[in-house]
Backbone:
């Protein structure tokens, strides 16, 4: 199984399925493609007509969307355990992933993922509203897991994979949270798979100027 991803420093969408695979110790090969602009559509178009990453290639099957990839991994390899087992919690987890998948556009553009970056930023009022919404999701659904970490619905699952890039964005740009949301962010930043990604992002040397704030 191959996962095609962008630069670890910048590619928030790539991080989601990578985390699900890595945290479940699955055997997969990474294929790295740069997000720099020159020739990007041709380079990424080799894997899927969407010309975007991530792309999962499993034998004859190609999947080109982070949510579809996570669903596939959960169903095919994890006996559905990528999601909470309780149907109500699973529906809620899917709702918050859909909210992240389809929204928070201002937050994305004002706070692009950049694991190596560290400086404070002044946000627009609408981006602050996005931050507050995420803070309320984390406060409402983060729960202690059996290993002591605080994860969404109590176990590291697809919802955490979807919100981990935001935890990194908030750290890079000095966005302050409080209470359970702050504890949740700390837990995500301390997760071994998130730490492994960040370490690998730190050893990449490529700078993509158009993604830097
Ligand atoms: N819906 C897609 C979006 C993926 C996406 O936007 N990926 C970005 C990289 S983080 C990309 O490939 N950008 C290249 C481009 O837009 O040319 C998913 O969930 O996988």
Residues:
């Amino acid at each position: 199984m191959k996962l095609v991803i962008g630069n670890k420093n910048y590619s928030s969408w790539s991080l989601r399925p990578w985390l699900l695979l890595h945290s479940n110790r699955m055997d997969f090969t990474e294929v790295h493609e740069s997000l720099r602009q020159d020739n990007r559509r041709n380079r990424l178009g080799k894997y899927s007509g969407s010309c975007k990453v991530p792309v999962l290639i499993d034998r004859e099957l190609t999947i080109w969307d982070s949510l579809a990839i996570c669903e596939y991994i959960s169903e095919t390899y994890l006996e559905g355990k990528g999601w909470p087992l309780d149907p109500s919690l699973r529906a809620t987890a899917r709702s918050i992933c859909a909210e992240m998948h389809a929204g928070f556009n201002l937050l994305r553009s004002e706070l692009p993922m950049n694991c190596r970056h560290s400086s404070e930023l002044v946000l627009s009022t609408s981006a602050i509203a996005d931050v507050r919404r995420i803070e309320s999701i984390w406060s409402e659904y983060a729960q202690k897991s059996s290993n002591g970490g605080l994860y969404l619905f109590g176990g590291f699952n697809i919802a955490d994979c979807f919100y981990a890039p935001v935890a990194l964005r908030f750290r890079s740009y000095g966005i302050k949270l409080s209470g359970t949301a702050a504890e949740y962010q700390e837990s995500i930043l301390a997760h071994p798979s998130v730490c492994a990604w960040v370490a690998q992002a730190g050893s990449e040397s490529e700078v993509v100027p158009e993604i830097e704030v």
About this structure: DSSP finds nine helices and six strands in the chain.
